Amino acid sequence: MIITVATMKGGSGKSTVASCLAVYWHLRGRHPSLIDADPQRSIVRLAARERALGGVAVVEDATEDASKTARRLASGGGLVIIDTPGFRSRMTLDCIAAADFLLVPVKPSPFDVDRMLDTIGILTDRPDGRRPVFRCLLTQTTRDSVIAKHIRSELAEAGLPVLTSEMTNRVAYPEASLWGATPSLISWKGPAAKEIAAIADEVDMVLGAQQAAA
Ligand SMILES: Nc1ncnc2c1ncn2[C@@H]1O[C@H](COP(=O)(O)OP(=O)(O)OP(=O)(O)O)[C@@H](O)[C@H]1O
Ligand SMILES: [Mg+2]
Fold first, then answer.
1. What is the CATH number of the domain that holds 164?
2. How many domains does the chain have?
3. Which of 66, 144, 156, 181 is placed for a possible disulfide with 185 were both Cys, Cβ 3.0 to 4.6 Å?
4. Measured in angstroms, how far is the CA atom of residue 141 from the centroid of ligand 1?
5. How far is the CA of 43 from the centre of ligand 2 (A)?
6. pTM, whole model, 2 decimals?
7. pLDDT tens digit string along 145-204?
């Protein structure tokens, strides 16, 4: 199972989402591999800090072979999460193509949505016509804000599925990363950890439903 986190927009929360999900599933005993395919090395740098992402297996591969590395790691039945760079490259496209599930984080702003639509365009343009399961995830939202609701309905109108769970704007995310941690490692029952759990469980539910249908 390969989950690729991608969008052609910098700073949308890709690395935060990828690391939070990896740590969450690691703590639940799933032991995922987290591939850092971004030459910025955000995940690798995070894992070099004190809490080392709680021991999540981080694999650095920002080469053209990143998707092959993902397929190899997933071939034994393991869960693989790929953090991709916020720009279009052959490697990003390959990582999207390799995904069983594409998670597209988007901040609730029209600029971010426009860039995200480019990403979705790549999906629909695949030569084999196969469309991986994908969901948009609203990130850095303010609870009950008008803009988040507006963007949510705009995406729905465009036929783009959005996870019900959101990653809200919380200082707990950058604070945890100071220690190379995610909120799930700091306080399992805290509000940020709870929203990560909700996002992860929703992804699992979509994947479970998909597998049952296959
Ligand atoms: N839910 C959140 N609440 C508060 N801050 C957040 C949240 N998500 C991400 N951030 C902060 O926003 C910044 C960008 O997030 P992140 O690095 O995850 O984005 P990215 O999409 O991986 O960026 P890039 O395209 O540069 O790789 C970081 O400083 C991160 O700590
Ligand atoms: Mg990043």
1. 3.40.50.300
2. 1
3. 181
4. 12
5. 8
6. 0.95
7. 899 888 898 888 888 899 999 999 999 999 999 999 999 999 999 999 999 999 999 999
